[in-house]
Amino acid sequence: MSPPRTTGPVSPLSIGDPVMPSHDPRPADPPRASRTSTAVPLTFRRTNAGLSSFGQTSVGRTRKSSPDEQSAPPTQELDLLEATRVAVLGPRADLPVLPAVAMEALRLVRDPRVRTDELLGVVEQDPPLAARILAVANSTYYARGASISSLRHAVVRLGLHALRDVIYMAVYANTVFDAPGLVEVVRATFDHCVVVARLSQRLAPQVGVDHETAFLAGLLHDVGRARCIKVLAKLPQARGRPRAELEAVADTLHEPAGAALATAWKLPVEVVDACARHHDPITTVGSLVCAADLLAHHLDPLSDEATRDVGRAALGTAMARIGLTVAEVEGLVGPLESGLEARVDAAG
Predict the structure, then answer these.
(1) What is the CA 345 to chain-centroid distance, rounded?
(2) Is residue 83 a contact partner of residue 235, using CB atoms and an 8 Å limit?
(3) How far apart are CA 322 and CA 290, in angstroms?
(4) 34-38, 135-139, 251-255, 287-291: which range is least confident on average?
């Protein structure tokens, strides 16, 4: 999770509007711990300014009402949480599907014997995807000063592994950026996920995880948060609510929401598990992503010293879980840190 960043305009490509639940004017039942409460020991509290502190939180938390809000119905916040849960996880939830072109392109890039012409024939069917690949190939990180205008040259320059990563990033971005009024929140989440993906990839050999699984799990670990923000941007119950409240709802639901999306996309079970439990992981891949997530915040230049000090303790615990120390990890990712911004810029 990441504080908002100042970025240029984003051109969203909507995959489809979520199905909105009808609003029931009757008071909602009190929250049940078994339905809406799951301990999340390693997470962050957010304010309008973004990341403010580390700490424990539990799903279904409520914020203290101000004197001006005493007349508001006591179930108002639960209504918003429940409406979002139904829209994202309910039986009528409109889960975006992987575009057919992207699915075929991903199948091809996994084949080391694939011919360039065969891959180009698929990518060219999706002009936005082709444009993204060309833009990434011309980014500072990859171009090395030489600009190209040919999609064929872009594919050759990137290579199969980088091309696979770009396709995944393009699908992620095109799926969730349609969030009117909250695009900057989605963008901040996306940028953070790209950093976590790269860090997961860098640490993967140390814990015996393959590069593709590490990258994909890191990239999608917070996709549920972006998905919830997209739904909240169009949800009637969310109109006029403070952004911090909307982000708190997204944080509450982001793990099951991400797991549902990864399942719908038929991604590997390791990736689904990492989406479902990356704050309190129970698998090797989940532990890797948890460590990379905290490391991304630790390296974030926007984090203040107090946050970094608290985060360093949590990071030490996460690193111990995968058999590394903070000092060892800082040595491993040192060369990567200077390239993080270029890679995030290249992603969108």
Answers:
(1) 16
(2) yes
(3) 10
(4) 34-38
